[in-house]
Amino acid sequence: MNIHNSYFAIRNPLHIIEQWLHPYKHTKTINYADKPLLISWTGRADSEFKKRTQAIIVEMQIYFSCVVQKRVLFHEQTNHTKHKVTDKLEILLRPVEAESCDPVEFAKQHPVSHEYKTNAAQKFRPAWLKLDYKLGDWHGEFGI
To answer: Helix (H, G, I), strand (E, B), or coil: what is residue 43?
Structure first.
């Protein structure tokens, strides 16, 4: 049993120190589909926002496959409907279904078959989103 990657795992103390040194001190609450969404980001992310000439698009994805997974993806462009947060940040939420339930393919590429358009899927609403930028990469997590 791999308890280190489980739900009950004890958090890495270095991660706790990292959050203490780089807190999510910038916040904005927006109305996302008639529900408040709290967006928080670190000072590093704020510095990166200021350097940008166009908005970064943050996709909060609920990925239905063998297991349900929440993913945060970052795009320069997308054809999907976005919500503007600031001039440098746009967001969207997409519930999607995997092409198959092959664990190897799932772990490698997260292949998407289609986006869920059902009433139940459209009722998903994010409650919070946290963004950070470290070591040249965007990082994010969200909750429903």
So the answer is: helix
What is residue 116's three-state secondary structure? coil
CA–CA separation, 6 and 51 (whole Å): 37
Q: What is the pTM of this model?
A: 0.79
Q: pLDDT by residue (tens digit) across 71-85?
A: 999 999 999 999 999
Rounded to an integer, what is the distance from CA 49 to the centroid of its chain? 16
Give every CB contact of residue 55 below 8 A, 6+ residues apart in sequence: 84, 86, 87, 88, 89, 90
Domains of the chain: which residue ranges? 24-143
* Cα(89)–Cα(140) distance, integer angstroms: 13
